[in-house]
Every structure is written in structure tokens, then in C-alpha cells.
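Convert to structure. Protein one:
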Amino acid sequence: MTATTNALIDSLDTAIEAKLAAELAITTTAARALASIMEERGWTEVQVDVEELSRIEQVTLVDGTVVDIDLDEEEQADYAVGNCARGLFHYRRGEHRVTLDEVRQAIAA
């Protein structure tokens, strides 16, 4: 390979590493934001939309009450959820969900 090709491949490697680092920073920060929101609002679990895993549909409160979410009121929570790693959500009881403890575990990992 020529020096130009080698330099371009090196630049590509550097760009890919930067992209991966940025993606990791986004998903980690999103998980931290989601955990903070869940703690502030007393949510123990969130259920997200099945299609894109980017919008909260229901939450479970500390007392076990399940509440449907008004999308207009939860813009920040949806923003955090939409930027979390898809693997954070688990398919349980016919829906994609994550508990506060699972979010905390993912952050610690």
C-alpha cells in the first residue's frame, strides 16, 4: 500500500475509535439520566414502546401502582430512554421493560 492509503486507513481507524467512544459516552450518560429521573419520580420500572424502545408507555411506582404516561409531560425521560443502549431493556410480561436496579447495574458495569 502507498503512504497515502496507509494514512487514510489510520485516519479511518482513529475516526472509528472516536465514534465508538462517543456512542459509549451517549449510552452511559443516557442510562445515568434515566436512573436519575426514575429516582426523582419514584419509578421502579419503565415499560417502553416495542417498535423503537425510545418512548416510555408505562411506569411502575414504588408502591407497585402501574401508571400510563402522558408523552407531553415526559419529554426528558423519553429523551434519555431513546439514547439508552437497546440491550438495557428486557422482554418481560409481553413488553420491553427495565427496572431501576437494572439501570443501576448497567451503569456500574
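Protein two, convert as well:
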Amino acid sequence: MAKQIVSANYLDRESSKKWLIRSEEQGIEGAQAFESVEATGVVFTASSADEEGFGCSMVAVCDTAVGSSQPSKREPKYGKRLRFDGFDFVDKKGDVVERCNCLVLNADGSMLTYD
């Protein structure tokens, strides 16, 4: 089964749908926008040349990714907050996070990992 590519919505940065999902087999024209995303089997990696042309330098390559208009049911207090520092995804201590079991992307732009 093809991996899923998840990124910030670089196609419309003003949209309330902050996240994009596309199949690894599709180009950026196949991306769909969502308010929230829950993904599993996540590895953070450099984006493709097409995405980088929109100012997107990193993406999440995922085993599964499901977009929704509803918030995640996962309890935020059990997650580890991530942020993008312009080069990498880092945790609150500033340590680079290269992969995670589960990634939750929220409508407010917040990012949480769960193991």
C-alpha cells in the first residue's frame, strides 16, 4: 500500500484547513486539505521539489493518514508537543524528532506525537 504524505497547507496558507494529505504516488495536485489529521507510522523527511517550490521544506511520510473536520479524540495531555523550527520538527526541549508512532495535527496548528 502506498504511503501517505502529510504537510502544512502550502497551497492556501489562509485556509482554515491547515493540513494536506496526498498519496505518495500522487503529485501535489492530488493533495486534499483538512482541518485536522491523525497519522501513524510517521517519518519526517525533506519535501519533494514540487512542494519546496511552495515554501514547504519538510513533510511527514506516513503508513496511514486520516483527515477530518473534527478534532482528534486523543487526550492532548498524553501527547508530546512538536514545533517546526524552520529546519526540523523539534520537541519542547529542542530535540529533533525524526519519527513517531502517531502524529496528531490540530485545526489550531498544534502538532502532537503519541507513542
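The beta strands are 4-8, 19-23, 32-34, 36-46, 58-62, 64-68, 80-84, 89-90, 99-105, 111-114. Residues 45 and 58 are 6 Å apart (CA to CA).
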